[in-house]
């Protein structure tokens, strides 16, 4: 069997710890369980990558604002933030695993996540 390796798929996950990364792409979607809009930012360094979802909800806004602040974009009341502005920006993140109960099945799941957004 041959396994194709597409552009950007030649890296593994970032190890646990703090990393300086660049946001290389943004994908948009809606959550599988509650249909909440989100954007997923792929963050890379030479050591690997992590993809983090940011939910466009009242609870998610403080986290989104922390991300924008870390990359040097100051939110202004009455002006929309454009996720395209994030591509190419550098920041420092803390990478770790996060476990949670899957809402659909109740089974425990783990995801690799980025938190603790800071200016690089």
Which SSEs are present, and which pair or pack?
Blueprint: E1 17-30, E2 37-45, E3 48-55, H1 61-70, E4 90-101, E5 108-119
Antiparallel strand pairs: 1-2, 1-4, 2-3, 4-5
Region (Disordered): 97-120
How would you characterize this protein structure?
The structure is a single chain. By secondary structure, the chain is mainly beta. It contains one helix and five strands; from the N terminus they run βββαββ. It has one helix at residues 61-70, and strands spanning 17-30, 37-45, 48-55, 90-101, 108-119. The chain has a five-stranded antiparallel β-sheet with strand order 3-2-1-4-5. A hairpin with a 2-residue loop joins strand 2 and strand 3 (48-55). It is globular and about 55 Å long. It starts with 16 loop residues before the first strand and ends with a strand. Residues 97-120 are annotated as: Disordered.
């Amino acid at each position: 069997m041959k396994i194709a390796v597409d552009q950007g798929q030649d890296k593994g996950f970032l190890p646990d710890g703090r990393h300086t990364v660049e946001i290389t792409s943004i994908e948009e979607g809606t959550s599988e369980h509650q249909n909440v809009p989100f954007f997923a930012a792929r963050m890379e360094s030479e050591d690997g990558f992590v993809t983090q979802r940011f939910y466009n909800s009242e609870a998610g806004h403080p986290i989104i604002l922390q991300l924008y602040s870390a990359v040097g974009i100051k939110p202004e009341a009455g002006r929309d933030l454009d996720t395209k502005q994030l591509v190419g920006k550098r920041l420092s993140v803390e990478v770790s695993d996060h476990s949670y109960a899957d809402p659909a099945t109740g089974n425990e799941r783990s995801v690799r996540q980025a938190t603790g957004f800071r200016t690089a």
